[in-house]
From TrEMBL:
Lineage: Bacteria, Pseudomonadati, Pseudomonadota, Alphaproteobacteria, Acetobacterales
InterPro entries from the UniProt entry: DOPA-like_sf, DOPA_dioxygen
Protein name: 4,5-dioxygenase
Taxonomic source organism: Rhodovastum atsumiense
Amino acid sequence: MIMCAGIPPAAHAQATGGNIHPMFDDPENVGTITAWHAHVYFDQESRATAAWLRERVAEHHPAARFGHWHEVKVGPHPGPMYQIAFTSGDAALLIPFLALNRRGLTILVHPDTGRPRADHLEHALWMGAVLPLDAAALVERPK
């Protein structure tokens, strides 16, 4: 079964109003991407690894902006995490850096197109396990 960000097709159809990527839609314009976000998930055992990664990203990618450490579920995210925000110009180096240095951490990377639901559920790139996101916590805005 093909799933979008770990969501079964029927649930995805309900969350997106039934629009499951019609075959002949025009492709999305990458010019709508204003920035990128990486959500680094951790638990009590992996918190030190998450801190190590945060320090390395700050050291090697000083333009990256870091969100707070969220020790509990926040928004659509199923557990503790912090966010790294970065520009499209930095994405070509920062995303591979995360891939090579995540040390077993699960990371969700997504563009910011101003459409939070689509960005988290349809445009998501997962490194590690695909975690279930709370689609109800994500607002969708028209294209």
